[in-house]
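ok trying this again, last paste got cut off
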Amino acid sequence: MTAFVLPLSFATPDVSAASAPGFTPGSPNVAVADPVVPRPSGRACVVTLFNGFQFTDFSNHPYTYAPPTGCGRSWSKVVLEADFAVTAGRQFDRTASLWLGGANIYFGTTQEPSATVAPSWHVERDVSDFASLLANPQSGQAILGNIVDSTYTGVISGSARLVFYPANVLAPKMDAPDAVFPLSDGTAGGPVTLNTGTDTLSRTVSLPTNIERAYLDVFAQGQGGDEFWYSCVPDQFADQLQSCGGGSYRETQVSIDGQAVGVAPVYPWIFTGGIDPYMWRPTPGVQTLNFVPYRVDLTPFAALLNDGVPHTVAVSVTGAHGYFAVTGNLFVYQDHNRKKLTGAVTANTLQGQPANATIGNTVTDANGVVSGGVTTNASRTFRTAGYVDTSRGRITTEVAQTVAFANTQDFTIDASQYVQAIDQRTTVDSTTKTRQGPLGIGTTTTVAYDFPLTARFAYAFDADGNITSSPSQVTQGFTRHFAKKLGALTLYRSDVDNHISTSDTLAFTDNAVTGHSGQASSQSFRFSDNLGSCYGRDVVTTAGLLTSATDGGGCSGGRNRLLWFTHPDGSADTSRVEDPGVF
């Protein structure tokens, strides 16, 4: 566990408040407030993965990768860049994923087009954690299933590349994981479908015997009957409330050899065709185009993983109801000075804990009027701990977490209206204590996540029961607060806040959508840390067009500035400033 003293050079030039660069007010093209990946200064090497792929069916698109020439094998950062576009016409939102050596390096969805708008968009992801994979030639594939015919005419195209930044004095080599083990659909990669809560994505892996730290990055994307899982109610209320069944509680479970070792909350991503497509033009929902994985700390179980026998790592989704697309990447850090580490798992209070939710209801049905609500609440607190004896002495790790879920849905259903209002919140409070050596010197890291979602869908009916209008409103958020301390001294702190509010009203004639009105949205993204980084961007849209995009909100002097090694998107960073080590 190596601590880094990083030069405090900023990755991007200061950008003054007011109009953000690259945005055109009045444009219908995709506009998001999310930051791009910060980069170190200096030269870079680019490796193209694919260029100009067209996605017109459900075939996978293979490509090959070779490490860059002229940039060595010592990199300070590696960034995935991808550009997508879809022609004007009619097309669904589609799921897109990129794979290399069976490992997922990108997961997201696409923007829907309109008859007159051909949207294009750019996504980036810090893939420095995959350095061990990128050091060797690999096969990869792009998965983006699409249908193009006389009805669905939108052709999706895309290109992707990797950008490598050689290490130097100002941007030293990353402390990347020593190995990555994909949890995917075969050697070429791909998400695995989990239809029920008992289905699992499981892979048996042979691991090195000198693991110091281990982390599992998890993606769990609701599809099909689970696309709107947050709007579902328990089966006994589904018919009465005219809603999807299966309940609203979803949680990802992680196990090793059948032993529960961690959990991951499920983020309520909303795709660009979700609820009312006009709400997401031109600004999609939080992370819709570029999902952020949730990182589960498996370090307390390093001693178990080091025992020299194969282990089965499995992922399931509590409450899955047809279906979730799931994948993961297991990252491990090794002791380079010792071939085998011994140790023990000393605590695991998660094992045996049921993943149960408490259901409450105030639903009434009187004289043709259904009203009231359904509440779903779940909370679990657990502790895992273990140690390994390394070449630098004993390292102990303790993880304590509380994960809470709350979903309240209120309904009003009668001859003139159908109204469903959702208020959901998922929170994670996690504390990790790492101690090293006989003196027990170490760090304490705390991470708090908050995934708020409020949504209101409504339908108005005429006297004949036909839909006349459908107003919808959604507010969605993602916050992450991180702190790493040595005693009372704060070594690093960062805060991420990404929120969007959007609304629109659909108009109907003969139960068919004939138009819409009142589209308006605002997205606000904020990032800051205690080293001087600050990023703020606000994007406002009206009637499907960009109204304004301004930078510098919340930053001193109204100027954005990001240190090159930061993770302003809210993804975990255990290779640099969030490394739990001291020495």
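PB: full thing came through this time. The two ends are 6 Å apart (CA to CA).
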